[in-house]
Amino acid sequence: MQPKMAWMQTLLLLVCALGISCMRVSASQQETHNPLERIKLYAASHAPESSIVLRLNSTVLEAGHSHQWFELSWSGVQQPSYADWLGLIVPAGADITKTAPAKYQIAAMDKNHVKRGEGRLKFRLINYRSDMQFALFRGGMMAPQLAALSPIIRVQNPNEPLQRHLALTGDNTQMMVQWVTKNSSNPTVKWGTSPGAYNHSAAAVSSTYSRQELCGPPANDAGFVDPGLFHAALVEGLTPGQRYYYVVGDEEWGFSPEASFVAAPPVGPQTRVKVLAVADLGQGEVDGSMEQSEMLVSLNTTARMLQDIQQHDFQLLVHNGDISYARGYVTQWDNFMHQMEPLVSSVPYMTTHGNHERDWPNSGDRFIEAYDSGGECGIPLERRMVMPQAGRDKPWYSFDFGPIHFTQYSTEHPFHPGSEQHAWLLADLAAVDRSVTPWVIVGGHRPIYIASTFNMPDQGDQPVAIALRAAFEEAFVEHRVDLTLHGHHHSYQRTCPVNDNRCQDTPQQEPAPSHSSSSSSWHDARSFSSRRRQGGPPRVIHDAPAPVHLVIGHAGADLSLNVDLNPPDIWEVIKLWWGYLRIEASATELKCEVVSDMDSSLMDAFVLTKPQGWGAAQMQQRSAKQQQQQQQQRHAGEGVPGGVQAGDVRVAEQ
């Protein structure tokens, strides 16, 4: 664990243990999320100092490496200061008044800097598809002065296939394989059922985005560098549940190392599946860069999830908004995808838009004056991660995975009754065949229920939750949605099965089947459990008549401290710590474990159950209800009072 992370976690433990009510540090109110936003480039200037020399242990980023460590040393700094810092310039030679560095470290991280004006630091660099170099800046972040430049680091293969990730298409005989290069012209995926034997291939479709397409700064200004080409190739003819081995790239520039994935499982109640879910993850730097970054914890979360994928056969990762927190900086998308590639090159990665991907004034989102995307307005996410969505800037879609139907929607786009998204979501739920997928999980970003004190009009947690309930709650109950997964508030929260702010089940607790890990007492200091849940065994909920709502925005971003300390009785668990959700589903059980990013201990565990044959019975009930409604409509059209049989009318007339 990073020292800063340990200090931050200890502080939060003390804050929460003492019950201190703090101002929220959240997506909606914090001035910045990305450390690069703190650098005031408009005040930057060139002030070269000939005495300063920067040296590198290597000047080549070699091909075939996912990353490479470089040691940067410097000397000759006159009157060294704690405000001096070292930044990575991408591309090399970029105008430092117009292009933000990709990363930085404070020079005083080496104590010799302040003592003698010299030092050395290690940086882990990834392939940004262009040459790069370091610069030593003086004057701090508010008025940086470029004092010296390092030799240029040459990138050996700018078209190395990078950032591999997978996505489902809605057809479990397909997989969308995606990656990025600088400008390769013949991108291809090759695959087969044995390592090294690629019997099939498919050409990719390529796209990118330009500065002019973006909505505002920093995305179309200091944060923009060439994002490269995004390639998406459709792998078809897969056998559900079969493992496939693949490489991506082209003949001219070479192919990636081999990776593998398991094709989506057969759809139906006979299949068991294991799913991971997060929201509000972000990114962290392993080399100590970005000292002010608030998302170092994301490194723990991604490492734990990778273990689950590799050692416990989890098959899918769902990420419901606030993906990278790049907020307009292309290099931060590169950093995030490098962090995620080990996971999402082996399991499909399904995303939804959050405020930090989509929101910008007058760009089509539902908020009046939200600048949270840093000018991206959804374009980078949509181009980088191809989802089976309804169309351009219509990021809502659904897919079946084993016994689960996932409905993914956007809380950032209009969702009111009468909107296109509202009509789509209601139609999607109405069309689910519960005899095939007995479980329905709905996912978005901003929560439909939330124990938060943030009530600001338009963007506040509670006003948005009220609007979501007005739009969807009746349909969620009518169509027997089992679980909703949202984020935005950086906490973990769980309701009872709830409708109209009232629990719809009995409050007794029952023992659950054994789980892979047990609760740890150190979580208790960060718990705000409601009066309905005061410890005891994991919750078992039988055939719930209304959804259980989860807030899972605790994957990596700074925690939201504006929790309602006296929440309504619908709240069974509220915890302030980082972690993620595991789901294991069969025809009759949906087991959920929320695990800590620190040690994988349980923060919460509950099980939803259904009787055998529930899905078929549900479809029979739906069919009978539809027949009754059709009969009533026919009678209404014939002028016959509803509920009165035609034969009865004839008797009355005789």
Automatic annotation (TrEMBL):
Return the annotated region ranges for Disordered.
496-542, 617-654
Report one GO cellular component. Answer: extracellular region
Where, subcellularly, is it found? Secreted
Entry keywords, A to Z: Glycoprotein, Hydrolase, Secreted, Signal
Question: Which residues, if any, are the signal sequence?
Answer: 1-22
Name the InterPro entries for this protein: Calcineurin-like_PHP, Fn3_PAP, Metallo-depent_PP-like, MPP_PAP, PAPs_C, PAPs_N, Purple_acid_Pase-like_N
Recorded catalytic activity of this chain's protein = a phosphate monoester + H2O = an alcohol + phosphate
For this protein, the Enzyme Commission number is 3.1.3.2
Provide the primary localization: secreted
The molecular function GO annotations come to: acid phosphatase activity; metal ion binding
Q: Where do the Purple acid phosphatase N-terminal domain residues begin and end?
A: 161-262
Annotated Low complexity bias: 617-633
| Gene3D superfamilies noted in UniProt | 3.60.21.10, Purple acid phosphatase-like, N-terminal (2.60.40.380)
Name of one Pfam family that matches = Metallophos
**Ranges for domain Purple acid phosphatase Fn3-like:** 63-157
Question: Which residues belong to any copy of the Calcineurin-like phosphoesterase domain?
Answer: 274-492
The Purple acid phosphatase C-terminal domain sits at 546-604
Quaternary structure note = Homodimer.
Family membership noted in the UniProt record: Belongs to the metallophosphoesterase superfamily. Purple acid phosphatase family.
Q: What is this protein called?
A: Purple acid phosphatase
